[in-house]
Amino acid sequence: MSLDGATKIETTCCIAGGGPAGMMLAFLLARAGIEVVVLEKHADFLRDFRGDTIHPSTLEIIYELGLIEEFLKRPHQEIREIAGQIGDEMIPLADLTHLPTHCKFLGFMPQWEFLDFLADEARNYPAFKLMMQTEVTDLIEAGNKVTGVKAKTPDGELEIQAELTVGCDGRKSIVRERAGLEVESWGAPIDVLWFRLSRKPTDPGQVLGRFVTEKIMVMLNRDEYWQCAFVIAKGAAEQIKQRGLEAFRADIASIAPFLKDRVAELQDWEPVKLLTVLVDHLRKWYCPGLLCIGDAAHAMSPVGGVGINLAIQDAVATANILARPLSQDYVSLSHLQRVQMRREFPTKVTQWGQVQVQERILKQVLGSRQRVQAPWFLRLFKKFPILRRIPARLIGIGVRPEHVRTPDVR
Ligand SMILES: Cc1cc2nc3c(=O)[nH]c(=O)nc-3n(C[C@H](O)[C@H](O)[C@H](O)COP(=O)(O)OP(=O)(O)OC[C@H]3O[C@@H](n4cnc5c(N)ncnc54)[C@H](O)[C@@H]3O)c2cc1C
Question: Of 10, 158, 296, 401, which cross-links 151 as Cys (Cβ 3.0–4.6 Å)?
Fold first, then answer.
């Protein structure tokens, strides 16, 4: 307890945010015997507004950790082929069955299951501490070095002193803001309306993207219901609401006619959540005593559903590079710089790809009254199945996949 009444804790690594980046990093560090405290502002992981995709490269990391069998016992679906309905045509877009990974599929698992799994595994290590309902409010600095964070808990103020603070607090990161790290934005011409509709056994199988004139919807099969992402032009949410719920229901039915008998489940706008899409990255991911990774370092668009995978890859690279310096209680600027150098290239290439899809495909479909047709090169995917391996590799493995190099002290 300090004089100002705040409880004080000391640790080696303090992680702000228990999302995919924060939980994976915490698990890997605790597994390597390094004391780590994760601060998560929510009371649980039950938040329904983020992606569910667990990519083959993330599954490979779980395999390398020796946990794949346990992991796949959690409720999930396995998707081996990705298709899109473009206008009236069904186009097979990616075939994951040839990937050089142990799991040749994309896992769909609600994010809370995934985070819960990481937390459960991490609890096997005494060096791991997870504090829920603990919101980081500020950084603590000494000289020009970040030496920890201040946080708000249901029991009062908390101060955590750490050799290293890692901002894993997502795209609205308070850590990056308080550290004054400069953000470069690449913009995004879309937002997403997120809602669910019930699913019937007679519904068609998983078709991820549906593109029709002026409309795009992505639908995730969660057994009892469809999690729907209705893509809209940036800032158009108000206009859509003003047109009224009936018009919105008709839009949904025109994209996926089999939903016509249940669009009335949307009784008002309350269950329709607006998710603002951003694509940005920090010029510098670190300063003395502090590093940002995951969306806190680079907010990802939902395009390709790769944000979770990138956050995981960042966490693995961070643990690989920093576990040894952390075990010696000394992390220098050049260690932090190595993390950025390792992860910046894959991040920027992926974001560049997302921006191309947003600008050249999504924006065009949303802004054109012409009948949507599959471009010629996508038609080739129907004729030459081997081509489907290219997007499979880009989405499933991505650029510069990471591998677990940290020890297990157990
Ligand atoms: C609409 C939409 C759909 C998406 N769909 C997909 C998809 O299907 N697949 C995919 O891979 N990616 C998807 N993404 C991107 C993906 O959600 C992110 O890239 C990924 O979650 C980043 O992980 P993270 O751990 O860096 O951050 P986050 O997942 O944002 O986690 C940050 C964590 O920090 C906590 N936090 C925030 N502030 C504080 C604070 N002050 N103190 C303590 N805790 C704090 C939050 O509660 C949260 O738990 C989508 C994004 C959007 C916007």
Answer: 158
